[in-house]
Amino acid sequence: MTLDAVLAFCALCLLLELTPGPNTFLVLRHSLQGARTGVVTALGSAVGAVVWAAAVAVGLAALLERSAQAYQVLKVAGGLYLVHLGVRTLLAHRGPASTPAGSASSLPAAFRAGLVSCVLNPKVGLFFVAVVPQFVPAGAGVGTTLLLGVLEAGVALTYLSVLSQVAARAVEWLRRPRVTRTLERASAAVLTAFGVGTLVSAR
């Protein structure tokens, strides 16, 4: 790959990241618990992108392009997962206090949330199926696809980590129970809306 092709691919990835999606709101929600938790969520999402790149490299993700049923199943699974995350967040605020910011127990959960959300997002899979091959030179091996996956993951991790830092500092500045509760509920509602929208579009 030429340097121009790499830069063009990274620029495209950045433009796509700037468009808010489920992963963006998921990172924002976890950033309310602290920048560290938000960055760990972003890391999980980045690892999910590498998983997609590996799936494309071995030909598994091509099923999404050929099978409407496989694509629909993935959309339903992803939608249900986002609804689950949103509803769980709303219910958590009706019970005892949530896990302390950045605690050891909250970090694995944040990583899993980012990872599963990305892996169950069919749009990410279609990006690697439809867009990534256009940047792979003729005759290139599996390694090139994986490299592009790592580049996409790096761009996503960088952007989401910066977003997490900004969100966490904003929360620290506005550290009021009512504000935090409102932001948590708003992000949970957005995640639920994304999930419901995904389920509706799968019909």
UniProtKB/TrEMBL annotation:
Q: Which PANTHER family match?
A: ARGININE EXPORTER PROTEIN ARGO (PTHR30086), ARGININE EXPORTER PROTEIN ARGO-RELATED (PTHR30086:SF20)
| Presence of the UniProt keyword Membrane in the record | yes
| Localization of this protein | Cell membrane
One Pfam family linked to the record = LysE
GO MF entry, a single one: amino acid transmembrane transporter activity
Q: Which domain of life is it from?
A: Bacteria
What is this protein called in UniProt?
Threonine/homoserine/homoserine lactone efflux protein
The UniProt transmembrane annotation reads 44-64, 113-136, 142-162, 183-202
Report the source organism: Kineococcus rhizosphaerae
